[in-house]
Known about the structure:
- The protein contains nine helices and twelve strands.
- It is α/β, with parallel strands linked by helices and 288 residues long.
- Helix 3 links the parallel strand 4 and strand 5.
Amino acid sequence: MSDTAIITCALTGVLTNPQQHPVPVTAEEMATAARQAYDAGASIMHVHFRCQVPGKGHLPSFEPEVAALVSDAIREKCPGVIINMTTGVPFRDQSGPISCLRAIKPEMAACNAGSLNYLKAKADGTWAWPPMLFSNPVDKVSELVEVMKETGTLPEFECFDVGIVRSVNMYVDVGIVKNPEYNFVMGVASGMPADPELLPLLLKYMRPGHGWQVTAIGREDVWPLHQKAAELGGHLRTGLEDTFYMPDGSKASDNGQLIEALAKCAERAGRKVATPAEARKILHLKPA
């Protein structure tokens, strides 16, 4: 287990409405939120780009100009920061994410590693949204990874279920990727639960010797999972994309508060929080 934990801040998410929750959407807001997280210990910013047209910030964007505007603003306020951009789209056409990868050449990018029935049921017995398939067939994954090789981007494989973890192992076997980073996404209603007891089993089934982290989706109940990840040697991630709640059940007012609480998980596990330069070295990325 490394004695140093890299912290990622997931700044905003896909569709979270800024009228209801304190998520940043404009380039300036993203940069300010990133600086708060950076000052609290985050070396990596996981970024979903949002439409920059006033009144439409609740909508995602894969326009290269928007990606460049947001990433440049974050880099200016956070020296040495690592940009980890989203590439997730539920359909086969990923020309938008690919154009953004080529435009900004981020150090890292999230890559959904397998398909999932994306479901959530409400207490009244109806669907929270129409059932949908988040489709990520192998040819889609492979296409994205090839572009990441071109742009010098480290893929971080988002695994929503145990079978997807094992699929990443096979991506290595067949030569799609050499050095995967695993991201165990836990807490999506139709995927793996945010259960600390499940985490040791995931480590058993991943390919040993590679980096991993947990994305914990939920309310204040996700914090024991974060603590377990810190104790087992994983890197750490939180932010307003993943939760709005602090360990005591109160609502977070910004990303910086969440990152401060996550850094305490690392400290309780006897681990230090990586600086951006240390994170780059651990992940084998180029110096800033």
